Amino acid sequence: MPEKVFVSRSIPRPGLDILEAAGFRVEVNPEERVLTAEELVRSCREKAGLLCLLTDTIDRSFLDQATTLKAIATMSVGYNHIDLEAAKEKGIGVANTPGVLTDATAELTWALILAVARRIPEATRFLRGGEFTGWGPILLLGVELNGKTLGIVGAGRIGTAVGLKAAAFGMKVVYLDPGRCPELEKRAGAEKLPLERLLAEADFVTLHVPLTEETRCLIGRGELRRMKPTAFLINTSRGPVIDEEALAEALREKEIAGAGLDVYEKEPHVHPGLLTLQNVVLLPHIGSATVETRSRMAVMAAENLAAMLSGKPPKNPVPLPRN
Ligand code: DGY
Question: Of the candidates 231, 163, 216, 168, which has an alpha carbon nearest to the alpha carbon of residue 192?
Fold first, then answer.
């Protein structure tokens, strides 16, 4: 009897092909929405494997009820939605999709930097609203990137990829990371700084840290006050890294110049204080949303799941907590 796997949302076809070719009976969530906790438990009945997404809550309560699961592959690099402690206790393997979304997310980070610097969404709204009556010498003035400082918080794969593109815009790079990043230092001339100095010196602060207990609310009221009033904050990592209430206030009070966000504290809910402001560009968590990257992520997640269910180590295991 072939083992059954559940895929929690419709994913690019190449991922499903891999699972089917490996001989699994594949069931895909037929709804174009995230399943409720009860629906997910029900769908995972008798399933040996789950291919899930960052929008699924894989907590202890779910794992207590999904008693047949042996392996979980998330189609995301982030795995803060999975209770790793509980998975480990139950002997469930967990894998993710690192690396393949680095360029897509780094490119979207630059799209946000350029969008906030040159007020692109605001200018589009202006034109579509019929307000463009001709070229104006002080119409929608933005700021230039050339000669400015980019502050990277978290110089892992994505942070490094963002930093390596900074030279193309003539920017200086400073960064913060628990370790040293020789590649960024050598190829982008980057300087490692403590957070307070990075916040005080950068014209654009961009966040690339995973969400952990240490990084939750890393940027709050105090940190925002350390930034220059002319600086911009960019976040393509995880929403709870920023205290959104404090950010809305800092933007409203013009304590900083603007922000570009792809992720939110209580996704998909966006702080109402942000929705009404002109100086913030808001995107619906599309960092990895390219045809190429999403296909690669689906394939990688499917290969990881197939490997784990065949008793082999997956290519991308999530390190489970040590005792
Ligand atoms: C991830 O994979 O964690 C990204 O946030 C998806 O865009």
Answer: 163
Domain assignments of the chain as residue spans, ordered by start? 4-99+291-309, 102-282
| Encoded tokens for 9 | 């949302």
Strands ordered across the beta sheet of 191-192: 191-192, 172-176, 149-153, 204-207, 232-235, 258-261, 280-282
Ligand 1 neighbourhood includes 76 CB (under 6 angstroms): yes
Residue 190's pLDDT is 98
pLDDT (0 to 100) of residue 87: 98
Give 10-residue mean pLDDT values along the chain (323 residues). Answer: 94 98 98 97 98 98 98 97 98 97 98 98 98 98 98 98 98 98 97 98 98 97 98 98 98 98 97 97 98 98 98 96 81
Residue to probe by mutation, ligand 1, list 101, 112, 207, most atoms within 8 Å of CB: 101
The amino acid at residue 3 is: E
Rounded CA gap, 156 and 177, in Å?
A: 8
Q: Judge if 4-99+291-309 and 102-282 fold alike in CATH terms.
A: yes
Contact 306 CB / ligand 1 (< 6 Å):
no
Q: What was the pLDDT predicted at 1? A: 76
Q: What is the pLDDT of residue 85?
A: 97
Q: How far is the CA of 279 from the centre of ligand 1 (A)?
A: 25
Ligand 1 centroid, distance to 95 Cα (angstroms): 14
Domain 102-282 adopts which CATH fold?
Rossmann fold (3.40.50)
Instruction: Tell me, in angstroms, the distance from the centre of ligand 1 to residue 170's CA.
Output: 28
CATH fold group of domain 4-99+291-309: Rossmann fold (3.40.50)
| Active-site residue list | 238, 267, 285
